[in-house]
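FAQ: What does a ligand-bound record look like?

Like this one, built around WQD:
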Amino acid sequence: MKILITGGAGYIGSHTIIEILENTDWEVISIDNFSNSSEQNYDRIQQITGKKIKHYAIDLKDLAATETVFSENPDIIGVIHFAAHKAVGESVEQPLMYYDNNLNSLKNILTCQEKYKVPYLIFSSSCSIYGNVAELPVTEKSAIAKAESPYAYTKIIGETMINDMSMISDTLKAISLRYFNPVGAHPSGLIGELSIHKPNNLVPFITQTAIGKQESLTVFGKNYDTRDGTCIRDYIHVSDIANAHILALQHLIINNKNLPHDIINVGTGVGSTVLEVINAFEKVSNEKLNYTIGNKRAGDVGAIFANNEKAKQLLNWEPKRNIDDMMSSAWKWEKHLSLTMNEQS
Ligand code: WQD
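The answer part, i.e. the structure of the complex:
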């Protein structure tokens, strides 16, 4: 069975390829234009799994180039579509780049799947579309608030595009997975989140502060209506997210009574405050983190975490790693990165 992974050199894409190669007999091909990832990740995948991935360095916004992948691989039966820009703050500063990239890439994937009758699609969606929700934990039926950013809006429009196509297509069956906060790294420490620029996200900023790449961490606000005043998020290990993709694709293939397009939350169901994440990091790393309390960050919601019952029931999925595993694997990766950078310099 041949699967196409778009964004396969990226953080979640590369970890998903590893989980597929280590747990299934599927053949994987990948598309990545390295706009926000490193080609080295394909070498890291080979180092970990012993398998070389056939990959295409094309831009999914180029329909003709995208079509060649489908025409050269007529035995593709499923697509896992990760490729997208995903920095919330950057999307506010550059909305058209986000609408162009994220929506035209998906449009071309849907066009090719329809033309080449590729039936199955797993779409990388996001909890950021829930915005500032009233009821917690959020379920897939929770109201979708007004998008807090163009990034979040591209996920709402993306799910709608898939929904509309699945209603008229004779073949398309899709699941949109709404991730919460993906963090952590492969247990080998040989692959993880690569922040090519200064990281926006909390966990890479923590590990870069601890290793000395960043001066200190600013905690964005300590006067939210939460147990310690800092924001609550549902942090989930990237390998648990990767595993959810395998189970979602298997579910689409095995269960022919699927909805043409279903939506599933992928979170642990556990909310952690920023200070609790910092404490967990200090505990597992035995490092004292240098941080200060600063002002709130625009666009942040006070608290959000998942109701993940649907993933458990429908996919028989269960998150296996806790916040300590997430912090220790992220720290192991940061130390490996620093070691290899020093060796190269
Ligand atoms: C987490 C918490 C910050 C940095 C992310 C992705 C988004 C989506 C959801 C996938 C917040 C605080 C952060 C720092 C801090 N994922 N923080 N100091 O904003 O929840 O969104 O997950 O689609 O794409 O961006 O994640 O890691 O930026 O912030 O205090 O230096 O950490 O205020 O409360 P966020 P984050």
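Follow-up question: can I read anything off the structure? Yes, for example: Residues 323-344 form the longest helix (22 residues).
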